[in-house]
Amino acid sequence: MGEVEFYIFDGELWCKSEDGKNQVVNESNTELIGSVLGQIMECYPAAYKALSKEYSRSSANVPYYQYLMVRRFCKCNFGKLDCTSSDIDTSGRYHFEKVDCPLRGECKHEGVICSPKFNSKLSEQELRVMKLVYKGVSKEEIAEQLYISPYTVKNHIKSVYLKLGIHEKSEFIQYANNNNLFN
Predict the structure, then answer these.
(1) Gap between the Cα atoms of 159 and 178, Å rounded
(2) Contact 78, 6 (CB under 8 A)
(3) pLDDT tens per residue, the chain (183 residues)?
(4) Which is it for strands 4-9 and 12-17: parallel, antiparallel or unpaired?
(5) DSSP letter string, 37-98
(6) Is residue 8 helix, strand or coil?
(7) Phi-psi region for residue 25, left (φ > 0), alpha (ψ -120 to 50) or beta?
(8) Pairwise CA distance, residues 119 & 42, whole Å
(9) Phi, psi angle pair for 32, to nearest 5°
């Protein structure tokens, strides 16, 4: 798919591709919609579930239904045209933006569709341990804070590295930053 920048213009969702072309996103953009929807399903399952429920009345018209879900997700997370970084980079990573929304703070989908939680495939205990690793806390201090043995901390770290296909702390820090794991 390449790099993509989404933005809102006159109430419509637009995208700018890496070749510089700008176009309105609509239900005929099946490749783009399919790619974004697949990523939402895999990496943001709670957002996908909420979007499916929100637009369920349109589910009989599959292309339109999928378009509505992608449009909402993009409007909530990629609303500004900027030149700092693409919303979706060449590796398929999403770079969310803080979008101005009149419902900020009272929308039932905040933290679900808007600024969704990344599905890291890590257990809650692994996430607790890795959040402390991310903050630079030593293994002994992590064990003390979480009331677990240093050996258990070491096993959680080893398990996380194995699940994510990484080998060292710096790679985990990069993974956590790229996927907004703790933000």
Answers:
(1) 20
(2) yes
(3) 678 999 989 989 999 988 889 999 999 999 999 999 988 988 889 999 999 999 999 999 999 999 999 999 999 998 777 777 788 877 777 888 888 877 778 888 888 988 888 777 788 899 999 999 999 999 999 999 999 999 999 999 998 998 888 899 999 999 898 887 886
(4) antiparallel
(5) HHHHHHH-HHHHHHHHHHTGGGTTSHHHHHHHHHHHHHHHH-----SSS-SB-TT--B----
(6) strand
(7) beta
(8) 8
(9) -60, -50
Backbone torsions φ then ψ of 136, nearest 5 degrees:
90, 15
Reported pTM = 0.71
State the Cα–Cα distance between residues 21 and 34, nearest whole angstrom. Answer: 19
Instruction: Report residue 121 CA to chain centroid gap.
Output: 13
Cα–Cα distance for residue pair 82/104, rounded to 1 Å: 21
- What the block records as the tokens of 32 is 């783009």
Strand arrangement, sheet containing 22-24: 4-9, 12-17, 22-24
d(CA 17, CA 104): 29
- Widest distance between CA atoms in the chain: 57
